[in-house]
Amino acid sequence: RMREVDLGCGKALLIKESGEFHAVGHKCPHYGAPLVKGVLSKGRVRCPWHGACFSISTGDIEDFPGLDGLPRFQVKIEKEKVYIRASKQALQTQRRTKMMAKCISLSNYNLSSTNVLIIGAGAAGLVCAETLRQEGFSDRIVMCTMDRHLPYDRPKLSKSMDSHPEQIALRPKEFFCTYDIEVLTEMQVAAVDVKSKIAVFKDGFKMEYNKLLIATGSTPKTLSCKGKEMENVFNIRTPEDANRVVKLATSKNVVIVGASFLGMEVAAYLAERAHSVSLVELEHVPFKKFFGERVGRAVMKMFENNRVKFYMQTEVSELREQEGKLKEVVLKSGKVLRADVCVVGVGAVPATAFLKQSGINIDSKGFIVVNKMMQTNIPGVFAAGDAVTFPLALRNNKKVNVPHWQMAHMHGRIAALNMLAHGTEISTVPYLWTAMFGRSIRYAGHGEGFDDVVIQGDLDELKFVAFYTKSDEVVAVASMNYDPIVSKVAEVLAAGRTIRKRDVDAVVFLSFRTGDMSWLTGKGS
Question: How is domain 2-93 classified at the architecture level of CATH?
Fold first, then answer.
């Protein structure tokens, strides 16, 4: 059982499990979700919104997203009363940054050598650096990034487009100085010599390393039509891109190409600000491959009710200009759309071209191939995040690419632990969310190749849970206004248990309508 208790100057989450009491912070440090509405199972609590998991005995973060753990409070039982002792500061911050080492040997290095080099400063790179310091690693760590900013909350670029870099920074500048995590901004690696253990930068600078993490993420695809280089045509890659799109789109005509997560989130964000928003997509329903046709249609209807116009089963043939600026988007169907701004969201490719001659194993699609410990085929070289394929235990160790924010965090942690020879294998359930018009779709599992969708609830009311099945087995779940069902199912899958198609009705009834959680801790299916 979990109960939120008020201690006068702040709240705590009081937990009773297996006869023992624990008290921790009551809010998820990621985005502030109330953990009392989450899922308690086997010594940890899972966030109802985005799936982060915390140990109830230590408060440590065990699954992601987010960087910090929960404060842990003393609990004492006297005469059948429970007493909680907590510091006011911990109650007010509701987060705890784990103790970290600092570098004690910087003087042993020249500028062009480091023990650990991390290429990429997204979630995977930052979590790797932080995990190394948390584990007591006291040697030099250097991160490098093409970006001009320190690591930031990239999902907000399409969900909260007018956010400034300092508002979405994952850590303040002082943090990196305090824990001796060096970040080289606007630095692009052009090649890696794995035999000499040297990274060669675009400007000719070279850096020796002992251990290497490649976490370069992906590069947005561009249009191939005439006019693609024109002003006011954007791939949203940086906070500056997002800010500029909002500024240019206000009270203007916007065309978005691609009903991807990015494209749909941008359309939702701009719908109230722009004069018109048009969305062009090759499929006949948004999200069909990911959420299935019925859920896709329900989402499409929500967008249409918010003034977004869809042009489906067509592509862009030309972008036309007037006085050097975008004026019209011409579709292959012959339709001509007025456009002052165009945002391109037609997918991405792994940012791994610089590794082609390196000897690091890369598959036919450009993804870096790693094992369960995030190791490449080259000793001492690890890879993480959107640019990799790895064995997913949930799908019988099938090699998959999972370009989710939560997964990048976990990759970074596993890579760091194995740089330190811990022998830790990745074991996590993919978890993602998307936010549109103040509503969120949550998703857990890996539904690639699903052959059926079992839906409970009301799609028209946008209150539903969808179970994605493959050969009678539930492989993923999505929901809208049905919290915390996705986090509950994620806990079942994380425990290695199987949900069959025939059991879906019972799962929804037990977990949502009755609140009975005993099926979580049972054995077998």
Answer: 3-layer Sandwich (2.102)
* CA–CA separation, 334 and 316 (whole Å): 10
Q: Which class in CATH covers the domain with range 233-346?
A: alpha beta
Q: Give me 137's structure tokens.
A: 């690693």
What pLDDT digit, counting tens, does each position of 170-190 carry? 999 999 999 999 999 999 999
**In 231-349, which residue ranges form alpha helices assigned H by DSSP?**
239-249, 261-270, 288-291, 293-304
pLDDT at 525: 43
Cβ atoms of 2 and 14 within 8 Å: the answer is yes
Q: Model's pTM, two decimal places? A: 0.95
Of 496, 520, 474, the residue nearest 392 (C-alpha): 496
Question: What tokens were used for 517?
Answer: 């959680």
* pLDDT one-digit tens code per residue, 383-419: 999 999 999 999 999 999 999 999 999 999 999 999 9
CATH of domain 113-219+350-420: 3.50.50.60
Same fold, 113-219+350-420 and 438-521: no
In the chain, the amino acid numbered 64 is: F
Contact between residue 331 and residue 314 where contact means Cβ atoms under 8 Å apart: yes
Instruction: Please count the other Cβ atoms lying within 10 Å of the Cβ belonging to residue 249.
Output: 25
